[in-house]
From TrEMBL:
It comes from Labeo rohita. Residues 135-205 form the Immunoglobulin V-set domain. This is CD48 antigen.
Amino acid sequence: MEQKIVTYEYEPKVVQMGDPLILKTDAKVHTHVLIQWLHKNTLIATISGLTRKFSIYDEVLNGKFKDRLNLDKKTGSLTITNITTEHNGQYTLKIIKGCRVSFRFFGVTVYDTFKPVPVDKKKTISLPSDLTEINEDDVIQYFFGHSAEPIAQIYGKERPTYYNDERFTGRLKIDQTGSLTITDARTTDSGLYELHIFRSERKMAKLFSVTVSGK
């Protein structure tokens, strides 16, 4: 019995609302390849090299992909046009080639706003949530540099949690509105910060481009 070889990869993707998002396979469609795309464990597109047939299932998940999906017949790459925040989440690429099965997971974040945040060294970085208060069922998370793990988060009215990232030790604070401050700004704090807000089954995202300057 031939043994299957399985490989896994993860890639975060950040895209502005309304833009197209291209999820690449880095492969070519040929006779012995089957490519499948899933969103939250639901099949949304597939292409078979054996039959040269492709299918797009844009009616699934309450039709949120209706007329938005395009599949490249040569590579199997998937494009989502006019993307919105309801398209946030994990996308799975499954490629079956003989006895080899590979999975690539794309963590997609669609942000509503992009805000440049210039700040002088030693000052305080402020990343506003634009909320007036945190509700009991809110989940608020902050990410830095496209990391898969948050640097800070808060669940409803509970105390915030700050994760063990030595770059920010003792310098992070989430207030009662869910906004984040980083004290004693350093040049190594420069980069992209993602704010994810989960509220009443809706996810909102904001992207901050922080530049720390000065001696």
